[in-house]
Amino acid sequence: RRSKSTFAGPDPREPTPADTAALLAMQALCAEATGHAAVAARGGGGEGVDGSLREAAMSLLAAAAVAEEGVAASPNHAELRLGLTSVYALLGAATAARDAFAPLDVKNIQMDSMIHHVLPIAEGGATPQVTFRVTRFADNLRDEARRDVPDGIVKAYENGIYTKALEFVDFHERLRASHSLAAATVARVRATLRETSCGGGVTVLRETREGKGRPVYAGVPGPVMGALDAAAKACQGLLTHTSGTTANARYNEDLGTNPVWSPPHHGASALAVPDWWTVTSRADLPPGCAVAVAGAHDAGAGGAG
To answer: Where are the alpha helices (DSSP H) in 16-77?
Structure first.
C-alpha cells in the first residue's frame, strides 16, 4: 500500500513496481496455502487436518484480498487477474472467479490457448450461462476458421505467397484436433443436457378421442431427445477429428500462463479444484507421466493412470 502512492496517477494499462509487490505477496500466500493443503491431504483425518485446511483457506482469502487491491490499481494486469481467478476458484467462489476473469476479454483465437483457466469455473459451480458464453466463443472460432481458412489458402496460392498458405494449413490442423476446443464442446453438451433435463416435464400418455392413452417418447420428453441427438453428433465429430483418442489431440493450452500454485490438470475440468485440495504429493510421478499428478482424478500427461 505504501508503494502505491509513489506511483500515483500512472497509465492503468502499464504495470508498475507496486503491481509486482502485490503479485509477489499473492504468490507467497498461495505457496503457504499449498503447503497447508498438502499437510491436510497427508494427515488422513483428525483435528490437525481441519486446522491445516482452515489455515489454507485463510491464506487463500488473504491472497485474494491482496490481488483485489492490485487489480484495483492496475485492472489490466493479466498475471494478477489470472491469479485472482485461480484463488477464487480454489475457494469455491465460482461467480467471483468469473468476475475476475471476464475483464481479460479472452475470446475467439485466445480461447484455444486460455480456455483452461475458465473451464474449471464454468463446470465447477458457475451458472450455465457462463459455460454457454465461454463455449460460444470457442464455437465461433471453429466456425470462422472453417469459413476463412480455405479462402485464405486459395488467395495465398494465387498471390504466390506459399509460406502463408502453409501457415493456414498448420492453423487449420491446430484447430481441427484442438484439445481445448474439444473440451469446450463437451462442456457445452453437458450443460445443455443438464439444463434441458431440469427444464421440462415428461408426457407419458396422451388421451385420444376413444379415451385411450397413447405413449409419447416412451417417457422421455422431446427436448431431452433433441439435446441427446445434438450431443451425439457433436461428440461424434470430436471422435472423427482425433481418431477416437485424446492421444491424437493437440494441446494448444498456454500452460505458461498458469499461476505457480496451479499446475496443469489433465483430468475433467470440473474436478480440477477438488484435486488441488486432495493432492498427497506433487512430486509423485506415475509411470508414463511427464508432470506430477494433481490429484485423485488427474491422469497426468499422456493419460497414464
So the answer is: 17-43, 47-73
Tell me the three state secondary structure of residue 22: helix
Report the alpha-carbon angle 261-267-133, nearest 5.
85
| Sign of torsion over alpha carbons 23, 24, 28, 29 | negative
Which amino acid would we find at residue 57? A
**155 vs 242: CA distance, rounded Å:** 28
Secondary structure E strands in the chain: 205-207, 213-215
Quick check: 183 and 156 in contact, CB under 8 A? Answer: no
Three-state SS at 207: strand
User: Is the distance from CB of 55 to CB of 30 less than 8 angstroms?
Assistant: no
C-alpha cell, 55: 489455515
- pLDDT, tens digit (0-9, with 9 covering 90-100), for 16-75: 777 888 899 999 999 899 888 888 877 766 666 778 889 999 999 999 999 998 898 888
Q: pLDDT of 200-225, one tens digit each?
A: 443 333 444 444 544 444 445 666 66
* Paired residues of 68 in beta bridges: none
Spatial distance between the Cα atoms of 37 and 274, rounded to a whole number of angstroms: 11
